[in-house]
Amino acid sequence: MVEFTRHDESTAPEAAKPLLAASQKQNGRIPGLHAVMADAPGLLEGYQNLHRLFMDSSFDKDELTVVWQTINVEHRCHYCVPAHTGIAKRMGVDDAITDALRDGTPLPTEHLEALRTFTLAMVRDRGEVSDETVQAFLDAGYTQRQVLEVVLGLAQKVMSNYTNHLAKTPIDAMNQKYIWQGVDSAV
């Protein structure tokens, strides 16, 4: 197995040091994902920027969680599902939403279920979704802007999920209690 280096501010490439300092300041620690990404400073910077932009999107905390966790579960990311479970808890997302996403069971509202359905279609069809799929999303009360913001969230999650698959990033201690074993089939 290839061991990917996990950096801190003393071992990171020079361009990654301020990025890790920002992670430390924002999170009170350097998440394992950021420690791995630091080896490629452009990847870490891109990820941090996409995260900030997605957080500033028109989605509320529940919707952000639906997009993130739908992608994490579909990609079977051993690191991101627990991490976003912890993030959802800190954001005050109802456990019923998080549990449904983790377990592949129906979400508590049709509106959120429409978001999961559209996000899954985007992942599975690699963005080549039908006009009917887009229209169903719009008919559920979402906007064209949100169609495109799902692309933004997907770009962020591809960076993290793929990095974690390659590096087999250990789950951060604070998220160990949210370890996820996966589901046999996503919704």
Describe the main β-sheet briefly: none
CATH architectural group of the largest domain: Up-down Bundle
The dominant shape is globular
**Fraction of residues in H or I helices:** 55-70%
What's the structural domain tally? 2
Number of strands: 0
Number of helices: 9
CATH topology of the largest domain: AhpD-like
How big a fraction of the residues is strand?
Answer: under 5%
Low-confidence stretches: none
Radius of gyration: 16 Å
Structural class: mainly alpha
Give a written overview of the molecule:
This protein is mainly α and 187 residues long. It contains nine helices and no strands. The chain has helices at 17-27, 32-37, 41-55, 61-74, 80-91, 95-103, 110-124, 131-139, 144-167. α3 runs antiparallel to α9 and α4 packs across α9 (144-167). The radius of gyration is 16 Å and the shape is globular. It starts with 16 loop residues before the first helix and ends in a 20-residue tail after the last helix.
